[in-house]
Design goal:
By secondary structure, this protein is an all-alpha fold. The chain is 85% helix and 0% strand. The N and C termini lie far apart (54 Å). Bound molecules: prephenic acid. InterPro entries: Chorismate_II_sf (IPR036263), Chorismate_mutase_highGC-bac (IPR010958), CM_dom_sf (IPR036979), CM_II_prokaryot (IPR002701).
Amino acid sequence: MTTASTAADERIAELRGEIDACDAEIVRLVQHRLAVSQEIGELRRATGGTRLSLSREQQVLARYQDALGPDGATLGLVLLRQGRGRL
Ligand SMILES: O=C(O)C(=O)C[C@]1(C(=O)O)C=C[C@@H](O)C=C1
């Protein structure tokens, strides 16, 4: 193996460590978001409200779309579905 490829391999391993840390944090945040979303849903239903808040969903999706583009909107939909189930 050349010196250059060894250095690249070491850097790739280091960067993968960063990705692993990002992924662990993302999973933690997704789990936290799910718990918060479910608590809101329970509170709304317990007080006679609707199962969903579509205007709020539009706000959430717009935020993901603005930050991340069309794939962001897809990601936002997946997160919403986690909390409230399928439409
Ligand atoms: O913000 C709310 O009212 C929620 O119930 C949370 C949440 C969400 O996960 O962001 C989930 C379902 C609603 O339709 C809208 C938003």
